[in-house]
Amino acid sequence: MYLEKLRLDGRIAVVTGGGGGIGLRCCHALAEAGATVIMAERDPRAIESGAAFLAEQGYTADSVECDVADPDAVNAAAATVIERHGRVDILVCNAGIARSGTPAEDVTDEHWRNVIDINLNGVFWCCRAFGAPMLKQKSGAIVNIGSMSGFIVNKPQQQAYYNASKAGVHQLTKSLAAEWADRNVRVNAVAPTYIATPLTTFGAEDKEMFKVWMDGTPMRRMGEPEEVASVVQFLASDAASVMTGSIVMADLGYTCW
Ligand code: NDP
Question: Which residues approach ligand 1 with their CB closer than 6 A?
Answer without folding.
Answer: 16-17, 19-23, 41-43, 46, 66-69, 94-97, 118, 122, 145, 147, 192, 194-195, 197-200
